[in-house]
Amino acid sequence: MSQYHLAAISFVLFTLAAAGFLTAGGLVRMLMFLELMLNAANVALVALGPAAPSQAYAVMLFAIAAAEAGVGLALIIALASAFKTLEAGGIKELKG
Question: How confident is the model at residue 96, as a pLDDT?
C-alpha cells in the first residue's frame, strides 16, 4: 500500500469522524469522534512524513490524545453531575 493510499484512507477517516462529531448528540460520542479525528491525523502524518520524525511526532500526538481524553472525560463527568444529562443539546446555559 503506497503512501498516497494511506493518505486517502486517513482523509476519508477524518471526514467520516468530522461528520460523526457534528451529528453526534451525546458528549461521549463526540469525544470518541474527536479521538478518531486525531488518529486519522496520525495516520496521515506517518504516511506522508519522513520515517523517523513523523513517527516520533505520532507518538507525541498519542500522548497528547490520551491526556485530552482524560481531561475530556473528567469534563463530561462534571457536566453530567451538574446538568444531569450527557446530551449536548441539554446543556444550554452557563452558570458562573
Answer: 61
Cell matching residue 33: 469522534
Using a 10 angstrom Cβ sphere, with 0-12 exposed, 13-18 middle and 19 or more buried, the burial of residue 17 is: buried
Boundaries of domain holding 46: 3-84
**Residue whose entry in the numeric block shows the C-alpha cell 453530567:** 80
Domain count, the chain: 1
Q: What is the DSSP-derived secondary structure letter of residue 90?
A: G
Residue 41 to residue 43: CA distance in whole angstroms: 5
**Mapping DSSP to helix (H, G, I), strand (E, B) and coil, where does residue 26 land?**
strand
pLDDT beyond 80 at 16: yes
Q: How far apart are CA 46 and CA 55, in angstroms?
A: 6
**Position 53 pLDDT exceeds 90:** no
Which residues lie across from 87 on neighbouring strands? 26
Section 40-50 average pLDDT? 88
* CATH number of the domain where residue 40 is located: 1.10.287.3510
